[in-house]
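Practice problem 4.
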């Protein structure tokens, strides 16, 4: 039931909420009352009147809030900042699809002033979790400065923000700092945070970027679509991938976005681990995975879903099931003369040959796949043949 509904048991669901609340605590301002209550206080020394006796340390009680806060490692806490409002409405970052936006940018690039500094930044993440950033500063279609680096436990979002900041710093360190600087990133969310209200993850990167942009006075942020053959963006993407291969900074703290992903991943992993040990025998051969998202089977009509779940659980209109519970008035045989069974639709002679499934590489494997991950084939065969309505009805 838990697997078919996409709902983990109550114990796992409560543990998942506790981990998510731990991530929520990490996103609070350091002056928040809950932060003060969650921080562990050093143990107090207990003094006695006897000068000869040794000083005893009184153990401190760890509250549930403190235990919840320690479920995830520490990270840089964001600061509660007032929202920014502008008197003038900023131009939208995206006004067309990716292909048209890329064409418009290349057209603008051909007409841009020769002294304009264009900063391309990007972030990347390897399958092993390594995250890196890269940037390239161009002027008149020539690369002036480029760089890359590796971050600690973080996400691509944080790498994009770091790449934009480091790219702007590199551009402002050039001799001619009065030129217009255009920072181009292919992450729409990062571009929005660079122009407006900073996100709570990598907040210090966004605020520092805005400070540098304000002090320079002529910095623009543009969104460009990724992987659309824009030379500067492709260069930054390669630098970001190279940054992932660098050694991880020592004692690097995880980002808030990384902790949030860990909280979500822990609940999914706990549900899968529970399912691997608690799955019923009839389900173990189906190789179905437990997921906290909505299972695709729930999109089926109710009658079709009933037939599929009955075939999986072996609890339904089957001869063995009726005999087990002494259903004397139940119909035990199909209209073809064979006993009703979960595997019977694959062998019934009344199913049209054009709808029958090929039971390869072996009948057991083919049936388990059709009832499990490949349930669409089972649904198509039984629906088009009206198997449970005409060939093998309940009554």
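Answer key:
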């Amino acid at each position: 039931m838990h697997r078919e509904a996409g709902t983990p048991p109550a114990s796992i669901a409560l543990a998942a909420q506790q981990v998510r609340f731990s991530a929520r605590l990490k996103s609070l301002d350091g002056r928040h009352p809950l932060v003060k209550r969650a921080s562990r206080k050093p143990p107090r020394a207990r003094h006695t009147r006897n000068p000869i006796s040794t000083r005893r340390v009184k153990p401190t009680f760890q509250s549930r809030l403190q235990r919840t806060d320690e479920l995830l490692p520490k990270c840089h806490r964001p600061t509660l900042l007032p929202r920014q409002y502008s008197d003038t409405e900023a131009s939208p970052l995206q006004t067309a699809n990716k292909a048209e936006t890329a064409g418009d940018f290349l057209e603008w690039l051909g007409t841009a002033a020769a002294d304009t500094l264009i900063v391309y930044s990007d972030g990347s993440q390897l399958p092993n979790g390594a995250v890196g950033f890269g940037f390239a500063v161009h002027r008149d279609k020539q690369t002036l400065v480029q760089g890359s680096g590796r971050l600690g436990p973080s996400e691509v979002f944080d790498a994009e923000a770091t790449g934009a900041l480091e790219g702007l710093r590199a551009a402002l360190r050039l001799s001619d700092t009065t030129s217009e600087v255009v920072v181009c990133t292919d992450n729409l969310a990062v571009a929005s945070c660079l122009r407006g209200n900073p996100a709570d993850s990598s907040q210090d990167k966004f605020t520092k970027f805005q400070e540098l942009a304000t002090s320079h006075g002529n910095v623009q942020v543009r969104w460009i679509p990724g992987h659309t053959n824009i030379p500067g963006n492709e260069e930054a993407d390669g630098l970001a991938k190279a940054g992932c291969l660098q050694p991880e900074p020592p004692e690097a703290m995880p980002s808030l976005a990384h902790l949030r992903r860990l909280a979500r991943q822990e609940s999914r992993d706990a549900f899968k681990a529970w399912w691997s040990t608690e799955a019923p025998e009839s389900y173990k051969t189906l190789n179905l995975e437990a997921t906290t998202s909505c299972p695709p089977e729930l999109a089926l009509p109710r009658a079709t879903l009933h037939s599929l779940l009955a075939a999986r659980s072996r609890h339904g209109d089957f001869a063995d099931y009726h005999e087990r519970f002494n259903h004397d008035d139940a119909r035990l045989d199909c209209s073809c003369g064979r006993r009703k069974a979960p595997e019977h639709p694959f062998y019934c002679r009344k199913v049209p040959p054009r709808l029958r499934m090929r039971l390869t590489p072996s009948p057991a494997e083919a049936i388990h796949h059709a009832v499990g991950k490949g349930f669409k084939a089972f649904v198509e065969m039984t629906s088009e043949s009206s198997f449970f309505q005409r060939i093998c009805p309940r009554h």
